[in-house]
Design goal:
It is built from 3 helices and 4 strands. It is an alpha+beta fold and about 120 residues long. It has a single domain, classed as Double Stranded RNA Binding Domain (2-Layer Sandwich), CATH 3.30.160. The mean pLDDT is about 85.
């Protein structure tokens, strides 16, 4: 099993001062994603504050997971930065769980392959 230190987590703030407590909060929340899927290469979290937006959508959290296969992206909006991070991690966790479930279902249900007529005649 890989240790949590082998994964890369990038936290950036757009129009927002990243405090050490906020960085620690993001790191603790994203550890759940790394435990869920060991093949995650990188998680990038962007926190944005737009004071001109309505109060209910002032903070935006954007997440990007670089994983073996198609990358995953998610965005959430909230009135509080910590709440936006928690909602983002929940959303990314659901996306990873669904991806895992679909891969498992595909693995356990083999599909038939149609052979062309030309190939069938050659055999």
């Amino acid at each position: 099993m890989n240790s949590p230190n082998t994964h890369e987590l990038i936290v950036s703030g757009i129009h927002l001062e990243l405090t050490p407590s906020l960085k620690t909060f993001v790191r603790e929340k994203t550890e759940r994603l790394f435990r869920h899927e060991e093949r995650i290469v990188r998680v990038r979290v962007e926190l944005e504050c737009d004071p001109k937006e309505a109060v209910s959508t002032r903070f935006k959290a954007k997440g990007h997971i670089a994983i073996h296969g198609p990358d995953m992206n998610a965005t959430v909006e909230s009135d509080e930065c910590h709440k936006a991070v928690a909602l983002l991690v929940d959303k990314l966790d659901r996306m990873l769980a669904r991806r895992h479930q679909l891969k498992r279902a595909k693995r356990h249900h083999p599909h038939t392959v149609a052979i062309d007529a030309a190939v069938a005649e050659a055999i």
